[in-house]
Design goal:
Helix content is 28%, strand content 33%. It has 17 helices and 40 strands. 48% of the residues are buried.
């Protein structure tokens, strides 16, 4: 077995690989850029080597720099993680020439499967069902429009070397095909250094289901069931689960056997993933093969008890698989939620900055409940504009899908992240969405259920009353503390009332509080809610036992109450005496400033180009400018008809959130 392993990656996946290597007694080497000098993966590794400036094209994807780090450290093997150089044939070849083991498949398999055009041709030859499309290279936008018309709209425009949702566009007409081709080409060149584009039919109402395969260098190949990855936004997976709530055993076996046949056709070894698109009749079509470890691999590990990173390392060391197909079962259910540094209230645009608070829920592994959090950040660390905005991968396990979902709800409620925008409210909303609960999902789920974007969560009446009861209980605890302040005048003792008005985002609930040594009961007109909690004033997280079930509420003190976040809802909750409540109703509401005549920058980013000039008349939906953030191009469009009166920024300018790009008459 190897004695020293270098991880050619950063962030969450580097930390994940380090954990398995350390468990196996292997020394680890981290690499880092200027921006990652104090990163968690650097702290976790046994040693670390600096490889250059923050931009990836000057550090993490520069093969020569990574090779220099390998020589400096004396590493015998390299795990590439995902992204960066993980599917780069030249990197695998460079390692082979140096006599260093690559913890991944052979370079020939990377070349064959890493190129989407070539992989589809090989899949056809291997008898694998594929999506109709044009496999040749496309020269320009007009050719793309012609091909798209021949295939039939809608079509998917893809970068041949793409991944992670980059370089992908759906086109429903000629105009979108023309524009999508150019944007995909630009993103592909910036992200992968390869701007080749192909087009395939976009299947409506599809599910994205992938098969995890594991093969060794001795001709053995098995599949470790499937992962359902249909909850996607902008072709980027957001929530994954294993197994799929849609597949039956026969379809699972058929997909698994095809995945293994494809792997064997290219002499594959290591862990890999064969992705399929599955229609409503369980017909499945090959999409691509990822010749690396997937972001969502933890849900497979949780439902099979197989450490995929460990298996990859053992295969790279020449060991034979110790697992046969009949050994692979399905244990319970696992769900993964990807926590991203993005603002769901601003169209999920990237958010950067310092994590002023980062407190994940406690990890646990029991028969009834499992919580796992794979992360590469820490409190006080920074989310950089140079890299993927992932904060963590929160995973829960349960004996059933319903239990796994319930555990995820609790874990998201208990996850404290402050200082940046994040998507926890949206993830919580999905966990409570009836379509998701029913397993009735497709890759269009987010577009269909949130067509106007995410505007927050409206709790049910029962949920609001839980929040009101929690706020009343906390307010009473704070009032008791205030009565114990020393030095008060004898005739000015503070008295604690029992009747209150609790306002939850403006909706009032008259309540009465009954308390004794066993807990607090909040009495509403139609129900009683009994609670127990050890919360004390100043705590930012309240764990409250309501009728034998634990609930978590994120709490911030505001005037006469609290800001409470629960189940994805962000609420202003005030607790008043009846008189205070009557007076509060007379207070005028603060009016938000009018920004309807301004184009504000929705994220920290770089202006790539302007599509209009001062004096131009613009129509609703017209492209105004393009902003690049985290390697993704975002086209900002006019929300209504108007005339451009002023432009405050130009190509090459870096802007912060809400900077004014242009003004309108």
């Amino acid at each position: 077995m190897f004695k020293k392993l270098l991880i050619a990656n950063r962030g969450e996946i580097a930390c994940r690989v380090i954990k398995s290597a350390q468990k196996m007694g292997i020394k680890t080497v981290a690499i880092y850029s200027d921006a990652d000098r104090n990163a968690l993966h650097v702290q976790m590794a046994d040693e670390a080597v600096h490889i250059g400036p923050a931009p990836v094209n000057q550090s993490y994807i520069v093969i020569d720099k990574v090779m220099d780090a390998i020589r400096q450290s004396g590493a015998e093997a390299v795990h590439p993680g995902y992204g960066f150089l993980s599917e780069n044939r030249k990197f695998a070849e460079a390692l082979e020439a140096e006599g260093v083991a690559f913890v991944g498949p052979p370079a020939s398999a990377i070349e064959a499967m890493g190129d989407k055009i070539t992989s589809k041709k090989l899949a056809l030859e291997a008898g694998v069902s594929t999506v109709p499309g044009y496999m040749g290279l496309i020269g320009d936008a007009e050719e793309a429009v012609k091909i798209a018309g021949e295939i039939g709209y809608p079509v998917m425009i893809k970068a041949s070397a793409g991944g992670g949702g980059k370089g992908m566009r759906i086109a429903w007409n000629d105009a979108e095909a023309r524009q999508g081709f150019q944007s995909s080409k630009n993103e592909a060149a910036a992200s992968f250094g390869d701007d080749r584009i192909f087009i395939e039919k976009f299947i409506t109402q599809p599910r994205h289901i992938e098969i995890q395969v594991l093969a060794d260098k001795h001709g053995n190949c098995i599949y470790l069931n499937e992962r359902e990855c249909s909850i996607q936004r902008r072709n980027q997976k957001v929530i994954e689960e294993a197994p799929s709530p849609f597949l039956d055993p026969e379809t699972r076996a058929a997909m698994g056997n095809q995945a293994c046949a494809l792997a064997k056709a290219v002499n594959y070894s290591s862990a890999g993933t064969v992705e399929f698109i599955v229609d409503g009749d369980r017909n499945f079509y090959f999409l691509e093969m990822n010749t690396r470890l997937q972001v969502e691999h933890p849900v497979t590990e949780l439902t099979t008890d197989v450490d995929l990173v460990e298996q990859m390392i053992r295969v790279a060391a020449g060991e034979e698989l110790g697992i046969e197909q009949e050994d692979v079962g399905i244990k319970g259910w696992a769900i993964e939620s990807r926590l991203y540094a993005e603002d769901p209230y601003r169209g999920f645009l990237p958010s950067i900055g310092r994590l002023t608070r980062y407190r994940p829920p406690a990890e646990a592994a029991t028969h009834e409940k499992g919580v796992r959090n794979d992360t590469g950040v820490y409190e006080g660390g920074e989310i950089s504009m140079f890299y993927d905005p992932m904060i963590a991968k929160l995973c829960t396990w349960g004996p059933t899908r319903a239990k796994a979902i319930d555990h995820m709800r609790d874990a998201l409620d208990a996850f404290e992240v402050e200082g940046i925008g994040h998507n926890i409210p949206f993830l919580s909303a999905v966990m409570d969405h009836q379509r998701f609960i029913d397993g009735n999902i497709t890759t269009a789920f987010i577009d269909e259920e949130y067509p106007e974007g995410f505007n927050g969560v409206e709790l049910s009446e029962a949920g609001k009353k839980r929040v009101a009861a929690c706020a009343a209980g906390m307010f009473r605890v704070a009032e008791i503390r205030r009565t114990r302040i020393s030095g008060t005048m004898d005739n000015h003792k503070r008295k604690i009332g029992t009747e209150w008005i609790v306002s939850v985002d403006g909706e009032e609930f008259p309540i009465k509080v009954e308390a004794n040594k066993h807990g607090t009961t909040v009495v509403f007109e139609d129900r009683r809610i009994g609670m127990k909690s050890k919360w004390t004033p100043g705590d930012s997280l309240a764990e409250v036992d309501i009728a034998g079930k634990k609930h978590h509420f994120k709490v911030d003190k505001i005037t006469s109450g609290y800001r409470i976040r629960y189940r994805g809802a962000d609420m202003k909750v005030n607790v008043f005496t009846p008189l205070q409540g009557a007076l509060a109703r007379l207070m005028p509401e603060k009016v938000a400033p009018d920004t309807s005549k301004l184009l504000l920058c929705p994220m920290p980013g770089l202006i790539v180009k302007l599509d209009v000039a001062v004096g131009d008349e613009v129509q609703e939906g017209q492209s105004l400018c393009t902003v690049e953030a985290m390697k993704m191009e975002n086209i900002l469009r006019a929300e209504k008809t108007g005339i451009v009166s002023r432009i405050n920024a130009g190509p090459g300018d870096s802007l912060a959130v809400d900077d004014v790009i242009m003004e309108f008459e």
